[in-house]
Amino acid sequence: MDDCIFCKIIDGQIPSTKVYEDDRALAFLDINPQAPTHIVVIPKAHMRNILECAAREDDLLGYLMGLVAQLAKDQGLADKGFRVITNCGEHGAQSVEHFHIHLLGGAQLNGKMG
Ligand code: 5GP
Ligand code: ZN
């Protein structure tokens, strides 16, 4: 999608620090990290949010969640724990309308979720 920041990261128009890449997914460091480890996991196909991802015929959403868990282990977060977030729409304060999953860890996170 032409004016989508994350599509531009996927095709290299915007640089990013990549953590993992395959034919379906990309994981990169968040530019404004909210924890010592803050990784953003996205599908390579453009879709707006978790609702659109869940509506697909394939198991992309399950695949992405499995990837998040694998990355948590690879990043050494499994022992102490971590947080997985996806923001959706206005009330969810989603700022980039390309579906993404945040993986946060590496320190004790705030107990508040909102
Ligand atoms: P949201 O608020 O939509 O859930 O999360 C969007 C995230 O994308 C934010 O945490 C923000 O810091 C990150 N972000 C926005 N633009 C860029 C960018 O150009 N590069 C990287 N690496 N992260 C970005
Ligand atoms: Zn996009």
Describe the structure.
The structure is a single chain. The protein is an alpha+beta fold. The chain has 3 helices and 5 strands. The longest helix has 15 residues, at 60-74. It is globular, with a radius of gyration of 14 Å. Guanosine-5'-monophosphate binds at residues 5, 14, 16, 28-32, 40, 87, 93-96.
- Structural class by secondary-structure content: alpha+beta
What does the average pLDDT come to? 97
Classify the helix fraction into a percent range: 10-25%
Bound molecules: guanosine-5'-monophosphate, zinc ion
Radius of gyration over all CA atoms, rounded: 14 Å
Main sheet characteristics: 5 strands, antiparallel
- Residue share in β-strands: 15-25%
Number of helices: 3
Question: What tags apply to this protein structure?
Answer:
single chain; 114 residues; 5-stranded antiparallel beta sheet; 3 helices; binds guanosine-5'-monophosphate; binds zinc ion
Outline of the structure:
23% of the residues lie in helices and 22% in strands. The protein has helices spanning 5-10, 50-54, 60-74, and strands at residues 18-21, 25-29, 37-43, 82-85, 101-105. The longest helix has 15 residues, at 60-74.
Give the topology:
Layout: H1 5-10, E1 18-21, E2 25-29, E3 37-43, H2 50-54, H3 60-74, E4 82-85, E5 101-105
Antiparallel strand pairs: 1-2, 2-3, 3-5, 4-5
Guanosine-5'-monophosphate binds near residues 31, 32, 87 and 95.
